[in-house]
Each structure stands twice: as structure tokens, then as C-alpha cells.
What we know:
Elements (H helix, E strand, L loop, with lengths): L1 H22 L14 H54 L36
Amino acid sequence: MNTILIIVLVLALLGGAVYVGTKFFGLTKDEDNDGIPDVVEDKVAAAKSAVKKTTKEVKRRAKRVKEEAGDVVDAVKDAANQAGDIVDAVKGNPRKGRRPSRKGAPKSKGTVNRSQGGGSDYYTKKR
């Protein structure tokens, strides 16, 4: 019991000596007199700044990962749909994909639209 009391008393004396040494004798520099040394305050401010920058970068990367994951999900869905077409092709079934577009004659600015009919047009009159 006496040993614990002696240990507590020694710790209290050490704590008091550190307090008096920092507060009254200026062992550590403390410009704003808040009891916290300026070196510690500077290190804490630097750590906060680093955490803020890191947090911003992590959020940016997480957003990009989410976008890419969505793209991968879409690609996997398309691949799953195409896998069924491969099985049908092996069985010999006809293709079910998009029909190829018909390529007609290119339209230029000087052509006349003859599909409307009914009008008195130079090209529709008989000669």
C-alpha cells in the first residue's frame, strides 16, 4: 500500500515540476500561453493538413473506382447477352442481332424527292 502511495507521489511531483518548468521558466516556447508548446501545435496543424489532402484524394479515387465498376458491370451484362448468341450459332440458328442498315444512293442537295407524288412537278409530267 505504501509503495503505491510513494509511486503516485513521485509521479505527481514530476508532473508538477514539468508544469512549473514549462509555464514559468520557459523551457518550451509557447507564444499564445495556452499550455501547449508551439512545436506540438505546428505538428498537429501539419497533420490536419495532410489528412485533409489525403481525404480529398481518397474520395476522388473512390469516385473513379465506382465509375469504372459500373462500366465493368455493363460490359459483363453485354458479354452475358452475347454468350447466348454463341450457343445459338453453334446450334445453327440464324443470327438475331441488329439487322444491317440498307445503303441507298447518297442524297445530294440537287435531287428531287419523287416519293410524295400527286403534285404537278416537272419530273412527274408525261411528255
